Amino acid sequence: MHGTLSILPLSVSGLGFSAGGKRLLHGLDFELAAGNRTLIMGPNGAGKSLTLRLCHGLLQPTEGRIDWRGGLPDADKRHAMVFQRPVLLRRTALDNLTHALALAGLPRGEREGRARQALSRFGLDALADRPARVLSGGEQQRLAIARAWARNPQVLFLDEPTSALDPAATKSIETMVAACHAEGMKIVMTTHDLGQARRLADEVLFLHHGRLLEQTPAEEFFHKPRTPEARAFIRGELLW
Amino acid sequence: MNQPNAFSTAIELIVSGNPALGAIVMLSLQVTLSAVLIASLIGLPAGAALALGRFRGRSALIVISNALMGLPPVVAGLVVYLALSRSGPLGFLGLLFTPGAMIVAQTILILPIVISLTRQTVEDLWAEYAEQLRSLGSSRLRAIPTLLWDGRFSLITALLAGFGRASAEVGAVLIVGGNIAGYTRTMTTAIALETSKGDLALALGLGIVLIAITLLLNTGAFVAGRLAQRAAG
């Protein structure tokens, strides 16, 4: 449905990252396949957000490789990211979307139509002319997901998108993520919320102290985790 | 002499719409607003580029631009005078002792203020926006217009600071304009001259007008900014 070639699978090998003389990630090896929803889990400081930022290209790895399939030249335009606290510009909701589409290289004449399509896809039409900065936290995050969706990415990275939201807003974000997945987008999301992971995950990457301990199908991860750290984490005993 | 009546005479001059006074006020506004406009056109993009750019000598430029905010107007006037005088490098323009020379001098005075305050504003915004904008595919160059627009409420203050400096200074416009009656006489140079001549009424009248204009402009900008900010969040 996304036309042309898929940028998946994403192959990550020997991925390491150091900052300020500290090694924050140690030799991560994993492959992300098309289609399913991957949840990256782990206690605080495990390296979840860091891994997401490296895959999205916001940071350069200090060791190892991140390869999109076939090394497609414009692969970076085919994945989008939603942050824990979205940054919206001081302009209307609609203008926030057309700005993002301009950055994505969409011709001027097609931007507004696509932006309105994205708003109405998620029932946000009423927000179109509202200044984005005065929207509620939940509305801002929904707008951020609509903005990412409008760019028609093959992969959607989400970094703890609901951790600052109330349960109702969280639910609507989860519904949007499910809708994106249903349209064929690969979902890669970090969360520390076990309930949310149970609801959304097809597979789990479990990180601890900057190391990848498990890449396991969700069913298995929650019922028969392979490592003692994962068992402790699921019981709520592993916080750091 | 007429000191006891200076204030009432000043009010009378203003209320009666004295043409000499009107011409001086108009010229002052014309020169200062032109300088603010030119300094904005150069200073806003330059300040943003200084905030986002990564090049050798950037730190030196930031320090120089900050330091030049304190450039004494008479020194700016002297430099422009030397450049525009008959034997100077720009003497062929024939600008010395014209309103054009006064605009040049005031632009030079305002430019460091606009550049420095813009740089600070845009740098702070970039710290907040960088990840999101880079994620959306924005280069640093492409981020310049985005950040200038998002910083518009803070940047108005930078322009008002520039307006304040230009409208209040005497030294630079006196040196390069020459304080020629009916041609290059501004409110500040007229106040200096009339005071030394002893015509306190005219000097006081001009002083009142100058303060009123500054107050009016700032009030307008403040109210407009607040309303727009409330609407835009």
Helix proportion range of chain B: over 70%
Count the strands of chain A? 9
Helix percentage of chain A = 25-40%
Oligomer: heterodimer
CATH architecture of chain A: 3-Layer(aba) Sandwich
- Record field, number of beta strands of chain B: 0
Strand content of chain A: 15-25%
CATH uppermost class of chain A: Alpha Beta
Instruction: Spell out the CATH superfamily of chain B.
Output: MetI-like
In the CATH hierarchy, the architecture of chain B is Orthogonal Bundle
Broad shape of chain B: globular
Q: List the domain count of chain A as a whole number.
A: 1
Q: Describe the largest sheet of chain B.
A: none
Order of helices and strands of chain A: EEEHEEHHHEHEHEEHH
The main β sheet of chain A shows up as:
6 strands, mixed
Question: Greatest contact pair?
Answer: A-B, 24 and 18 residues
Beta content of chain B: under 5%
Helical/strand content category of chain B:
mainly alpha
Number of helices of chain B: 10
Number of domains of chain B: 1
Q: What is the count of DSSP helices of chain A, taking H or I runs of 4+ residues?
A: 8
At a glance:
Chain A is of the alpha/beta class. Chain A has helices at 48-56, 93-103, 108-121, 137-150, 167-182, 194-200, 218-223, 228-234; strands at residues 10-19, 22-32, 37-41, 63-68, 79-82, 155-159, 186-190, 203-208, 211-217.
Structure description:
- The complex is a heterodimer of chains A (240) and B (233).
- Chain A is α/β, with parallel strands linked by helices and 240 residues long.
- Chain A has a single domain, classed as P-loop containing nucleotide triphosphate hydrolases (Rossmann fold, 3-Layer(aba) Sandwich), CATH 3.40.50.
- In chain A, 35% of the residues lie in helices and 25% in strands.
- A 6-stranded mixed sheet of chain A has the order 5-6-7-3-8-9, sandwiched between helices.
- In chain A, 42% of the residues are buried.
- The mean pLDDT of chain A is 92.
- Chain B has 233 residues and is mainly alpha-helical.
- Chain B has one domain: MetI-like fold, CATH 1.10.3720.
- In chain B, helix 1 crosses helix 10, helix 5 packs antiparallel against helix 7 and helix 9 packs antiparallel against helix 10.
- Chain B starts with 5 loop residues before the first helix and ends with a helix.
- Classes of the chains: A alpha/beta (240), B mainly alpha (233).
- The interface between A and B is medium-sized, with 24 and 18 residues.
